[in-house]
Amino acid sequence: MATASVKRITLEELKKRIRKGDLADRELRGYFEIDEDNTEAFAPALRLNYARVDTGGKELSPEETAELYRQAMAKRPEEPKLEGAAAAIKVLAEGDSWFNLPDLLYPNDALDVLNRTHNVVSVAKWGDTVENMLAQKQYVQKLRAGTFRHFLFSGGGNDVLGSIGTYVKTRKPGDTDPANAPAYVKASFATKVRGIISGYETLANDVRKTTGNRTVLYIHGYANALPKKNGPYLGKRLEALGFDPTVVGPLSKAIVANMVGQFNTALKNFAASRAGIVYIDMRPRMSAGDWHTDEIHPKASGAAKIAAGFAAAISSNAAVS
Fold it and tell me: What is the value of pTM for the model shown?
């Protein structure tokens, strides 16, 4: 979106206007931008647009910029409150960037869509890992209120899709066969997945200890992201290992699908072993055209499909509402 009409201001003026809450959406898009150099998988980083914000030569850290951006977004007008049956369906959500992306700079995420039909309270934060979520236990604080019958959790993406460089072997010369994808995923990845599931066990224990059997926990294992040439999260890492997506596209996609598949299988088995846990397979819902240009996040159409998956699962468990 063009931001040519956004005037240049000082950092202090920007902070003042953020406190006042009078920044238009086009101005927010003009003063903030995605920091590609510091962005990691499932952890978008932001920076000021220094062409439009005069900081006197000072460069803000990604953390400082993110906090400033959150303050600005908190001042935006609230969405209309839900009424009737929709308002009664209270849903708690904890997760990473699949549940929370910088509004205006990225497409709507799944919770943006779900919040139109469900009363969603979110403590999700882009960049959070399962380890961080378990350490902070913000979800426990919310669950203690006793008002949530549905708890959506999204975690592990950094460990799976963000770990290509660690858990994938170098391509054998001349190999283009996608059927060979499983052989390229190191055995150590299975150990990594077991570690993630250990975190999910802690999560489930927290939920049961806090709410008894009154809250349903919903989990998912992401979807088969599509690596792109020079892609910041998948493409570049695969290319470094000899899997250029433009040369061995089917093989590179199959490797990603294998890793995502291992995670989904582990989550499905975990959910089947315990009461009160619902596993949702998002892979069939996402088509090639539903991915954002950054490889690993859904665009608006994908977010709508993911939200529909959660909505259907919640509806199937409406008896606990």
Answer: 0.85
